[in-house]
Write a structure and sequence with these properties.
single chain; mainly alpha; 9 helices; globular; two-stranded antiparallel sheet; Four Helix Bundle (Hemerythrin (Met), subunit A)
Length: 244
């Protein structure tokens, strides 16, 4: 069976699986475990299972960004489809994590002003997300525009290195905001504490790996940027005139 508009199908699936799952993931970070499927396991069994879910998601990301995998994927899809296919797979794996995540015993619940403060601390990064995305100028997390450009035979323009907004203070503000959201849940259980540590470590490792790709793409300009701006935590300011 041959589809007349494969790009439209891939882009739609990327938007559905990528966008919808990110929304559900935000709900998961806000509310904690959603208890959608409960196997009734004890603490140890639940944590081991949760670790397997997390590792499956991490491996999917690590494998699909490798050049060797992309070469195999190019036999099925044009190169411009890679990001959209990656978005679809990531959405599916993340959805599996959310659906099957197992709850464990509660450890601590914030009350009163502490709870209100932590809820506010969750909302502020969402505002930061929009600020960071606007600062990028071009943001295509689901690879949809690249697919449409390919179908219309439009040559993809190389991204320019520009530093604006929160990128003046931290090289990966989106990761920084995610870390804040992860740790701002006022209801802490064993599984949530496990999630916080495991996913924080993965984000930090992912940021380091992404740094190599960015340095390879932008060269000395990005290496100078690395010397002046912290990677994840904005503990110092920079001379903004350098990056105009």
């Amino acid at each position: 069976m041959v589809f007349k508009h494969p790009g439209l199908i891939v882009a739609t699936l990327s938007y559905i699986f990528g966008g919808f799952t990110l929304f559900i993931f935000a709900v998961f970070l806000w509310a904690g475990n959603l208890n959608l499927i409960d196997f009734g396991w004890n603490g140890s069994a639940a944590l081991i299972f949760n670790a397997g879910l997390s590792l499956a998601f991490f491996l999917q990301h690590s494998i699909m960004v490798r050049r060797s995998f992309k070469r195999h994927l190019s036999r099925l899809f044009p190169d411009a489809y890679h990001e959209a296919v990656y978005s679809i797979a990531s959405g599916i794996f993340l959805f599996i994590v959310i659906i099957f995540w197992q709850a464990t015993a509660p450890l601590w619940e914030a009350q009163g002003l502490t709870r209100l403060f932590m809820r506010l601390f969750f909302i502020l990064p969402i505002v930061g997300f929009f600020w960071a995305v606007k600062s990028l100028g071009f943001f295509d997390p689901f690879g949809i525009q690249a697919v449409f450009e390919c179908d219309r035979h439009i040559k993809h323009r190389r991204t320019k290195f520009v530093v604006k907004g929160p990128y003046r203070w931290v090289r990966h503000p989106l990761y920084f905001f995610i870390l804040i959201m992860i740790w701002s849940c006022p209801d802490l259980s064993t599984d949530r504490l496990f999630f916080n540590f495991m996913w924080s470590v993965w984000i930090i490792i992912g940021a380091h790996l992404e740094e190599r790709d960015l340095a390879r793409e932008f060269g000395n300009v990005y290496r100078n940027y690395q010397k002046s701006v912290p990677m994840l935590f904005p503990y110092k300011l920079i001379n903004t005139k350098i990056w105009k």
